[in-house]
Amino acid sequence: MPEQPLLPPDANPEARRAAVYLVMAQIPPGKVVSYGELAAMAGLGRAARWVGRLMSQLPDDTRLPWHRVIAAGGRLSLPAGSAAGHEQRQRLRAEGLTIINDRVDIRRHGWHSFEHSE
């Protein structure tokens, strides 16, 4: 992850969204990334909450792998009883991830963009 944001702090919202979507689209099946890691990989520094808000606005029919973005420490932030939470858990399990106590083993399933950049 970059130490300094790649985008200038005053980058327009469309450029920020595009950067997040570009990185999110690259998360491979069976891997997860936290909101904060996604923000950093997109060059936004410490913008985890902004990324979370952005993701909450995705259309229902998005093809982006939103289900692979989770909270820090491997925690699934969508409530288990909600439709979106159920769908996220179902998709992650279909990709081979084990969910225990609403958590994914981030050490085993965490993704770092440099692992797949070759």
Question: What features would you describe in this structure?
Answer:
- There is one protein chain.
- This protein has 118 residues and is mainly α.
- Helices cover 37% and strands 7% of the residues.
- It is built from 5 helices and 4 strands.
- Strand 3 (99-100) and strand 4 form a beta hairpin.
- The protein is globular.
- The two termini are 16 Å apart.
- Residues 1-5 have low confidence and may be disordered.
- Pfam families: DNA_binding_1.
- Keywords: DNA damage, Methyltransferase, Transferase.
- Residues 17-96 form the Methylated-DNA-[protein]-cysteine S-methyltransferase DNA binding domain.
- This is Methylated-DNA-(Protein)-cysteine S-methyltransferase.
Ends apart, CA distance between termini: 16 Å
The coarse overall form would be: globular
CATH superfamily: Winged helix-like DNA-binding domain superfamily/Winged helix DNA-binding domain
Rg is 14 Å
Count the helices. How many?
5
> At CATH's second level, what is the architecture?
Orthogonal Bundle
* Residue share in β-strands: 5-15%
Helix content: 25-40%
Q: Which structural class should the secondary elements be placed in? A: mainly alpha
CATH classification class: Mainly Alpha
CATH topology: Arc Repressor Mutant, subunit A
Uncertain residue ranges = 1-5
Question: Structurally, how many domains make up the residues?
Answer: 1
| Average residue-wise pLDDT | 89
Sheet bearing the most strands, described? 2 strands, parallel
Strand arrangement in the largest pleated sheet = 1-2
Count all strands and give the number. 4
The helix/strand order is HEHHEHEEH
